[in-house]
Design a protein that fits this description.
six-stranded mixed sheet; single chain; alpha/beta
Length: about 270
Amino acid sequence: MKNTFVYQAKRPIVKVLQITDPHLFKDEQTELLGVNTQASFGQVLKEIQQNDTDFDLIFATGDLVQDGSEEGYRRFVEMLKPFGKSVFWIPGNHDFQPKMVEYLNQPPVQSAKHILLGEHWQAMLLDSQVYGVPHGELSQYQLNLLKETLAKYPQRYTLIVLHHHLLPTNSAWLDQHNLRNPHELYEVLAPFEKVKAIVYGHIHQQVDSQWYRYQVMATPSTCIQFKADSQNFALDAVPPGWREIELHPDGSIRTTVKRIRQAEFLPNMQEEGY
């Protein structure tokens, strides 16, 4: 496939860092529901560095910028440069893809959507954006591309990466913004036994669960958090965070979610939506 990045791993276990939903703005001082998203994203990256987190590459799983601004995407790139690791991205429902293509194609940020991870794994980064609406859907093009790639590399364990959620969150207001065609995704995945897991963002909360035979992971936002199991819009006071994923040679996955400890980013809990 054309858009393939080959990562030459130096060890058997490949370690991936997932960051998601920073919602940066043109203006560094702009807040989202009472949280300065620039500051919260910066704090997450700072604590990843302070923790001396060991990882090979980064997946940024959408809603990188809230207002589609050039400045937001440029700043995203600059803030990740100190890590010296390749960064792979997908769009979220708030992203503006023409700007992403223009500004997120310079080191360390890569535009590849298929990554061969060492000798045993691969990742497929899928575009679930339906421009102009919050919910997601995988186009026939994306489904065909996924099927072709899985058929080409059947011997590799596979991690599927997208923005929108496919498991219900038990929150009516949020679940209306889900991935609309998970059944079609399953039909593509089912024949390939080495597909192991699906990871996404979008819901601003942690999920570690199962869907059919696949491990499913959702990761906290680097800014505001949505309260779990809430029928109406509600924010949570838990801190921003990130996810660390270990891909082992035997196809197993070890993962943990970590949250910042050194700063507080409390949202305006009275907000009723955004």
